[in-house]
Amino acid sequence: MRQFSILFLLLVCTGTALKAQFNTGRLPGRGMGSGGNTSMQRDTTKHDHEPDTLTLRYRFLDEPTDFTIDSTIADFSLNYLGFPSTYMTLGNNGNAARNLVFTPRMVPGFDPGFHAYDIYAFNHQNAKFYNTNRPFSELWYLIGAKQEQMINLQHTQNRGEKFNFSFQYRKVNSPGFFQNQATNHDTYNVTANYNSQDKRYHLYLSYYLNKINGGENGGVMDPADLNDPDNKDRRLVPVRLGGNNPSLGGLLNTNIPTKSYNQDASILVRQQYDWGHGDTVHVNDTTQYYKFDPVFRVEHTLTYTENTYRFQDAAPDSLYYRLFYDLTVPLNNPDTLRTRHRWRVFSNDISLMQFPMRGNQAHFIRVGAAFEIIKGQFQASELKEESFTNLRLHGEYRNKTRNQRWDLQAKGELYPIGENAGDFSVYGRLSRYLNETLGNVSLMANNVNREPSYVYRYFGTRNGKEWLNNDLSKENITQVQLRADNKKLKYNLSANYYLYTNYTYFKSFTESAQNSGVFNLLQLVAYKRFDVRSFTFDGDVAFQQLAGTAPLQLPTVWARLRVAYTAKLFKNLNLYTGLEGKYNTPYYADDYSPVLGQFFYQNMQQITNKPDVAAFIHFRIKSLSAYVRGENLNTLVWDNNYVSSLYPANNFGIRVGLRWWFVN
């Protein structure tokens, strides 16, 4: 306890000493999207700031709305780890993960199909294009049990009024509580945007590189081993893959003998040229600026992406691979077992845009076409290659009114020819801000017809084993959503209805299958916060009801409750401390195939867990935020919970995380 007190005082003193001029107000505000939360905050404030204060905004590709950074400290999972708390991993930070709230992939076109590590990766959709009046930097650092460490570095600045660049690096390194589940991720993201002097030409650049190493231990040999008094140190519990390797790794130790290795790299270059009306606006006798309102725009986007998925086992267990994968591994001279899928995709897109209302760039019509060249290589008995093309047509209408009350969006995509001919999506959303009391309501409908991901059709290993399924039809998914957001009454609610045809899934370690029937799913996701004097009670809940026969297993109810004391102390100390509990009803959790990197359906073993409980102290002092958490308190009373049939969750551990903002 004395060490904890000393650490707390050091953090407070460090935060007080920081001189950055950045204070974004009180806590804990947040929003919630369908199936999770969102850290994006719409920028609706005026920007007439003093010269020594920070004005920082960013946008996403194809989104005309400005957002500001999220400085809240309530949601550790979303605001620090970077993904919603509805996700569960295979027992360790950085391992394969899936969402307990149903979120199907609703994107037409080609898809390799390796998504178990997506939550740790950058992509062009989550790339942020900044605009700031002062250089801004962030430093995040986390240390946890069993030498877990996370590092996040970010910097953005404007060079003059026309050019901005940003850089972000994130590292996740966690040896884990159990053998051979170590993770080591390095991810990079660079963005830049440029506007010409006359504001007619715009350039956007986005680049990311994800190097993701996830240890694969196949789960524990026997769940009864967890109750053995000799296995209080969980690294002594035998696991199914990777051999007996009880030693811990480290931040610079990247040797993971049995692992999934995902490397994604992509560059996007978008150029725009506008025709419209320009005027010189005189603010006063000495100040003026040039204002340009586009009427017509030509947009060209080039994208090159290279995705590589590998699995390797340096010391393969012959019995395991013969039993689950029908692979023969020589007993006297076992060679490293390897797989590799490598995809290269080149896309060339041209779009035309018109802005019907002068001065409102959130009101536009866009039509365009893209040509894609796709090449794949697979490490089977001999090098196998695939090559095909796609033509994609797309259009969009968007009208976000200048009074911020109405937001109408309608868009569609169609693949008329090529490998994915017949794929399409149709999307529509109508949003209306009523007033401060009633908040914002929206209605959304989406229908997608898509070819199942390629991994369901083919997978091969270097040892000469191939698994094929050529009897797959296109999936069709319909989603209808009603959503309400209310800042004054502090709640978010979304109701989703899904209608799914030809659901494609894995039914074993190697076999894919397709359910030709139709099923529907009703899903309610809600967040509500109550403030009683200095105490905050907030909860998330998701209810899911499946109708029809489908090989899909979901918890009927998932819930999270936080009870916290909130206060503003010593003028600048914002404190948020209390307890957090998460619970889901019993269900048949998907199993996991390490070689293919896929979760698969099982209905033999039901997972029944006690609530996950954590105690936390979160606080912010000006530009310093800190998180001190004792997690998995439930293991001090009950046995380990399970995230899948043979994958137990971690034991009790302490995490300490820091986040600094620096304004130059």
Any overview of this molecule?
With 664 residues, the chain is mostly beta strands. Helix content is 5%, strand content 54%. The protein contains 3 helices and 36 strands. It has helices at 2-17, 76-81, 318-325; strands at 31-33, 36-38, 41-42, 56-59, 67-68, 87-89, 97-99, 129-132, 136-143, 149-159, 163-174, 183-195, 201-215, 258-282, 288-313, 337-354, 363-379, 383-400, 406-418, 424-435, 439-450, 458-460, 466-468, 475-486, 491-506, 512-532, 535-547, 557-569, 573-584, 591-593, 598-600, 612-621, 624-631, 642-644, 647-648, 653-663. The protein starts with a helix and ends with a strand. Mean pLDDT is 88; it is low at 1-40 and 42-51.
By DSSP, the count of extended strands is 36
Any idea what the radius of gyration is? 26 Å
Shape type: globular
Into which percentage range does the β-strand content fall? over 45%
Task: Write a concise keyword list for the protein shown above.
single chain, 664 residues, mainly beta, 22-stranded antiparallel β-barrel, two-stranded antiparallel sheet, 36 strands
